Every structure is written in C-alpha cells, then in structure tokens.
Amino acid sequence: MVLSKPGMRLIESLYLLFSATLAVAGLSMVWFAVRAYQDTGRSSMMHLSAGFGLVVTAAVGTTVLAFLTGFEHTRTLLTVNYLVSTGGYIFVMYSIFESS
Questions:
Q1: What's the chain's Rg over C-alpha atoms?
Q2: Where does residue 52 rank: exposed (0-12), middle (13-18), buried (19+ CB within 10 A)?
Q3: Chain centroid, CA 36 distance in Å
Q4: Angle between helices 43-68 and 10-40 (to 10 degrees)
Q5: How far is CA 56 from CA 5, 10, 48, in A?
Q6: Is residue 91 part of a domain?
Q7: How far apart are CA 93 and CA 76, in angstroms?
Q8: Cβ(62)–Cβ(20) under 8 Å?
Q9: How many domains are contained in the chain?
C-alpha cells in the first residue's frame, strides 16, 4: 500500500489518498467528540464518537482489504462497507436525537 508501488494506477493512488484523508478527518471528529464527552459528561458525545469511529473503520477496512485482495470481491467489500457505515451513521443520528 505504498504510493510508489510499481504498476499502481492513478485511480488507486487517489483512492488511497482520499481514504487516508477521510480517516484523518474522521478520527479528528472522534477525538473532538471524546473531548466533548470528557468536558460535559454527555453520553450523546460518546455515541457521536462511536458513530464516526465506525465510519472510519468502514473506510479504512475497505481500503486495506481492497488492496490486499487485489480489488477482487468488490460487491462483498462494498456491502460490508455500507453495513458498517450505516451503523456508524445510526449512532451519529442517535447522538443528535439524544442531544435535542
């Protein structure tokens, strides 16, 4: 999974770059939510951090497995990605509902 890998196409490099960007942004949101929980004690912030954590897990997991499997089994990868991402967004929605 190195950008200088021989034979790596531009689209694969972009996929890797955007996945890394999503991971950094998502983990930043997890960190902010955990800090907010520590400051306020509101459980909605823990639900928010769990949601973003699942979204990041889905993105990173899909990226890693895509490269490890040579981009085979894409339907399975995408299905699992959407399953885990949906769970994450349900946590995010619950945190919003809980805080209102």
A1: 16
A2: buried
A3: 20
A4: 160
A5: 24, 23, 12
A6: yes
A7: 25
A8: no
A9: 1
The answer as to whether 12 is a domain residue is no
pLDDT for 6? 62
Contact, 59 vs 11, CB < 8 A? no
Predicted pLDDT of residue 1 = 45
pLDDT in tens, 3-54: 445 667 899 999 999 999 999 999 999 999 999 999 999 999 999 999 999 9
Q: What separation, in Å, do the N-terminal and C-terminal C-alpha atoms of the chain show?
A: 42
Distances (CA, A) of 88 to 23, 44, 71, 74, 81: 14, 13, 24, 21, 11
For 54, counting Cβ atoms within 10 Å of its Cβ (0-12 exposed, 13-18 middle, 19+ buried), the class is buried
* pLDDT at position 8: 76
Token pair listed for 20: 């890394």
Judge whether 21 lies within some domain: no
